[in-house]
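Minutes, project check-in
Item: structure for the 881-residue chain
Input as provided by the requester:
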Amino acid sequence: MAMVELAKFFELTSDLMGIVSIDGRFQAVNTAFERILGYTPEEMQGRPLLDLVHSADRAASQSQISQLLANQSTTIRFTNRCACKEGGWRQLEWTISVADALMYCVAHDITNRTDNLARYKLLADHATDIISRQTITGQYLYVSPACYEVLGYHPDELVGQNRYDFIHPEDAAHIQKTIAQLDQQSETFSLVFRARHRAGHYIWMEAIQRKLYKLKDFDEYRLTNRIPSSLPAISAGEDQRTTDQSATDQSATDQSATSRQTAPSPSERALQTSTQSSSTAVSEIIVVARNVTERVLAQQKVQQFNTELEARVDRRTQELEDSQKRYLELLKLEREGHARAELAKATAQLYAEAVENMQVGLYIWQLSDVEDPTSLTLVATNPAASRLTGISAAGIIGRRILDVFPALVNTDILETYVGVIKTKIMADLGDVVYSDHQVKPSIFAVKAFPLAENCVGVSFDNVTKRREIEAIQSDQAAQLKILFDHSAVGLGRVSPKGDWIQVNQRLCDMLGYSMSELLGKNYRTITYSEDLGVSQRTYEQLMNQKVSQVSYEKRYLTRNGDVLWAYVTVSSSYEASFHTSNFRVSTASTSTASMSRDDQTSQDAVYFIVTIQDITRRKQAITALKRQKSDLMTVNMRLKNTMSQLEQRNNELDQFAYVTSHDLKAPLRAIVNLAGWIEEDLGNQLPAENKEQFDLLKSRVLRMEGFINGLLEYSRIGRSHQSSEIIDIALLLEEVIDSISPPAQFSIDVATPMPVIKAKKVPLFQVFSNLVNNAIKHHDKSNGLVRISAVDRGDYYEFSVTDDGPGIDPAYHDRIFTIFQTLRSRDDLESTGIGLSLVEKTVKAEGGSIGIVSAEGAGATFRFTWPKEPHVDSLEKETLA
């Protein structure tokens, strides 16, 4: 709805309004151009702004616009003459601002005002009374030549000066009080005062004052205060007087403006606080003053005579008045005094309630010692101050400022407060960052204003969240700009006509155009001919608001003529527009009528946001993939046949290993049984040497059986599928240690915490069991220590099994993982030489690795890794994918 009202305001406003591109051409104008200059919006579309400007004003207008575009200012204001379609010129006052690479222009027709000002000035220049135009603070903006005849000053000597500098001090205070209560005065009011002549003496003047209003505030002010519609008003820019009618007036105005900005007079500073309460609708005062010295002196003499006569009459009358009359008079005075006291009490109560309930914090400090800023003492505060700072008002009234806010020490804030008290001038301290043991770090917007009795009022608001939001918004805007400029995809904005109005460098690089070449080019000119149909259909859908966003694939033609495949996403950016139709007027009687209107609102596309991704390589890859698809299907069939054959071979191998182990173990069992029977039959007759040979025979048979079992187990590693499960390593190690049953003098230390992983339990159990068993079996002492630890390495865990045994020479580190290899004679230590080779093959089958860190005589550490994602499970996922 807000956009509808803006569109209606744009079309129905009396001022000329338009949008101009950076190159100076109109993009859109309102109907005021046709009413004032005679040009329709269609005639103004694309026309340069400076074509309308009078040749004598063109250079100055161009200079102002150039400064605006060069970022020397954010808004400019100037006047010039513009040509009417039917002939003639209109004096226009322009206000232009820049945003989003466009100039937004508002022009006000001041032709009649300029003519009127010239006539008024001519009348004022020949008047015998002194006519002047002043600000509400008393600064002269214009003074008629009669001031020389009356006061001896030339007009140029007074323009820019403050009238209170030329008024008797006793009268200046009364006038300042009257101006401070400007809203309570009638629209025209009179003041009598003494003005200083250039020669030094004072002249009595009678001045008739009349208010002038700003147009932008006048309508609201008139309705609020019931001001007659015939009263004068001035435009918001009239006080600048930028017309070309009088060079003298221009110079005086510039001098006045400079005086206002750089060096306010003492009288003007004294009025600064009091005039703030005046209505913002009153902009200036017109003053007509004449010399009434003779009349005032005569009135003074008459008044003195009347005073003396009245005094004599009063003395006589007083003696004759009866006590009843005196009683009535005293009673009346008492009632009036009581009424005034009640009014003052009510006013004071109203002010107190306002201070208590306002949302801005307030502290009032009183300066005890002018030379000591730290003597500022808190005399009053309001609830908002406690809420904003977190400091309770109870207990701080009467305390010095550094006792309440200790962090202000060594800052210039105290001197600023003292300066406000001394100069009686308000100070805006801006944003102040403060924190102490009571106040959390916050940002406060602080202002200080003077009060009576060496007091200063400090108003403040906590703007921390507001500043944080502003900083975030600023960062977001900067980040969005960086994202647009440095995006890896092409980005741009397209006008409703299909022309590129903004592009990033990536889009230029993709299409081979420079940014200046691409801007203004229509998207159709760079679209591949066969894709124009789909592009046009998409454009029509967006323009008809059937969709708000469309994504599709199309081909572009680069600057070199190459074809670029692109994935394009187009989004519409809308704003509401207002359309009026079917006004209906019906008259019920001769004195009353009613009018109704059917309004429609719609959304007009302002521009389109386009995202372009280069998918040329993807298209080429898809084409290549299609060609390879049949080849892959053939290879896949071959792989299936190979996997089937491999599975058959594995089954045959398992059957062979089982039969072989069974056939090999059968004679071994027979040998063991036969040897046992012989020993039983011979009993004590068996010589010791023969018994030792029988024991050796049985040990060799058991060794051979261990070889066969190891070979069978070795052949099955990696070929049998086992399900993974959640394993607590600490519990698993308890089972391993319990199954080994280490000697009581051996210590096995398990570091904590141990991880919980998903893995196949049996292989992991066998690895830990073999490593711990080896550490105990090959230890050179009857008592020893084995430590087991784990480290998280990201995608896998690294486990360590460390012993304090004899260690292994680095020369044999590779040999120990070879099947059937042992470092000691099997007669010295019974071993198959398969254990570590089984460990290595098991670890590698699960996707891990194993190694040893050892030196002879320094113990040994076996480290192996185990993936967090089970190896077989990962292969299954890849196969399914």
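Outcome recorded: The two ends are 53 Å apart (CA to CA).
No further action items on this chain.
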